[in-house]
What we know:
Blueprint: H1 14-23, E1 27-32, E2 39-43, H2 45-62, E3 68-74, H3 79-94, E4 98-104, H4 114-126, E5 131-140, E6 143-150, H5 154-218
Parallel strand pairs: 3-4
Antiparallel strand pairs: 1-2, 4-6, 5-6
Amino acid sequence: MIGPKGEQVGVVATSVALNLAREANLDLVEVAPNAKPPVAKLIDYGKYKYNEKIKAREARRNQSTAEVKEIRFRLKIDDHDFEVKKGHVTRFLNGGDKVKVTIMLRGREQSRPVGGVELLQRLAEEVEEFGSIESRPRQDGRNIIMVLAPKGKKVQTQSEQRRRGAESRAERQARQAARLNAKREAQATAVAEAESKVAGATANKTSSQKTTSKEGSNA
């Protein structure tokens, strides 16, 4: 048996181990059932499961799982539209995602796919700072397809995005707390002023009553 701090307790009977677990208010968990003799450990099983859940969540969060975004071009695209779509490709690559770029051919364009290949190569050259060609241009029916992969690791990008998101949330929470405190202070001030007015009115009324009573007595 292994103790709660990782110390070796030694070989003990199951009943003794259960008694030790009850005395320590812990759980007796079998960690190596196939060992001879089996190995058990004294732990807080609820806390153990919670920590395992947190570790699994962090592992999923840090896992690099790039999505594949798709951008479609026309063969006869003008320079302005090309720059706009190139901006989208750059943004996707910076976000750590792969980009599937598709040139859609119409009619006679299908007999001259070279222009589509040249357009894709031009795009790849202009975004080479952010991504590289993973799948070279190839014709697939009426389309010519190329896949670009980001040069940076998505996990690094996601970590940076999470950091900025956490900072932004902290700033929003601070602003909300400041607004809430200001609102509470304003309410407290209003209540104090109202109580002061009520107290003043009560004092004036009492003073008036005393004056009236005195005048009646003199009469």
